[in-house]
């Protein structure tokens, strides 16, 4: 039977994987991903160029977490739906 503790464990595991992969991407430790290039520096008319640095590629981290963490849920039952819900809840809270 599911418990609050199990729900928390699923949520924290899913968000932990997403966070770790996101951090590894930003640091250049993974060859499959890198910075989020949608969020870069910009030019301000009054102040000139503003550096945005390497933005974390959160989208890649979350997608990896979905493929990796959710893959272990193979039985089609109520517990599967609950575990998938808890995984997603953790990823949304990050």
How would you describe what is shown here?
This protein has 94 residues and is mostly helical. The protein has helices at 4-26, 58-69, 78-93, and strands spanning 42-44, 48-50. A two-stranded antiparallel ribbon has the order 1-2. Helix 1 (4-26) packs across helix 2 (58-69). The protein is elongated and about 55 Å long. The model has no long low-confidence stretch (mean pLDDT 83).
Stretches where pLDDT is under 50 for at least 5 consecutive residues are none
Largest sheet, strands/sense/barrel: 2 strands, antiparallel
Sheet-strand content, in percent, reads: 5-15%
Round the mean pLDDT to the nearest integer and report it: 83
How many angstroms does the end-to-end distance come to? 26 Å
Total beta strand runs: 2
Count of discrete alpha- or pi-helical segments spanning 4 or more residues: 3
Indicate the structural class.
Answer: mainly alpha
Neighbour order of strands in the largest sheet: 1-2
How large is the radius of gyration? 17 Å
Order of helices and strands: HEEHH
Characterize the overall form. elongated
**Portion in helices:** 40-55%
């Amino acid at each position: 039977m599911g418990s609050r503790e199990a729900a928390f464990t699923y949520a924290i595991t899913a968000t932990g994987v997403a966070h770790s992969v996101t951090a590894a991407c930003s640091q250049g430790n993974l060859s499959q991903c890198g910075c989020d290039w949608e969020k870069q520096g910009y030019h301000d008319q009054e102040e000139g160029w503003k550096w945005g640095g390497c933005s974390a590629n959160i989208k890649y981290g979350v997608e990896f977490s979905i493929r990796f963490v959710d893959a272990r849920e193979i039985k089609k039952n109520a517990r599967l739906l609950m575990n998938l819900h808890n995984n997603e809840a953790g990823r949304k809270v990050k």
